[in-house]
Design brief:
By secondary structure, this protein is mostly helical. The radius of gyration is 21 Å and the shape is elongated. It has helices spanning 2-13, 25-64, 69-100, 110-127, 129-141, 149-154. It is 78% helix and 0% strand.
Length: 155
């Protein structure tokens, strides 16, 4: 919702006249409008990759049960973030600039952008696995996520 609001604000702001004393109004609008493709790509990719991650996480959990939490955490992230990264870079820097206007990134650098961003995301995923284990241990200890809160509240 925040991204949709941000994109809406960009669309409105670039249509407003600059203050009479502000001499860089056209430059401001150009920079702001160039971000429209990045924000739009973020909105689209968020919907796709989050659903994919949840689907993969659940599928891996059905196979592993309560064992191998690292496989759920890293496994779902590996594929969903690959899709997220490739789709975002492709949309934000090649496809959407053609639609909304703006400069496209040369296709020759797109694979490098995808690889660098994906490797960074994998580094974060691996390093956050101990936090995932700690968080699930706390949730299991306090029986969070397994209770039927609606039934308990209404009884």
């Amino acid at each position: 919702l925040t991204l949709v609001f941000t994109w809406s604000m960009v669309l409105v702001i670039v249509q407003l006249p600059a203050a009479p004393f502000y001499e860089l109004g056209s430059e401001f609008n150009a920079v702001l409008w160039d971000s429209a493709s990045v924000v739009a790509a973020s909105i689209i990719v968020l919907a796709v990759s989050q659903h994919l991650d949840v689907l993969l996480f659940s599928s891996i959990r059905q196979i592993t049960g309560t064992r191998m939490k690292w496989a759920r955490n890293i496994g779902s992230t590996m594929l969903s973030q690959l899709v997220d990264t490739a789709l975002f870079i492709g949309l934000a820097f090649t496809v959407l600039p053609l639609v909304v206007g703006g400069e496209t990134t040369p296709l020759s650098v797109i694979p490098e952008l995808i690889m660098a961003q994906y490797l960074l995301k994998m580094l974060v995923a691996v390093s956050e696995t101990p936090l995932f284990y700690a968080g699930t241990a706390v949730a299991e200890h306090y029986d969070i996520g397994t209770r039927d809160w609606h039934t308990e509240v209404s009884e």
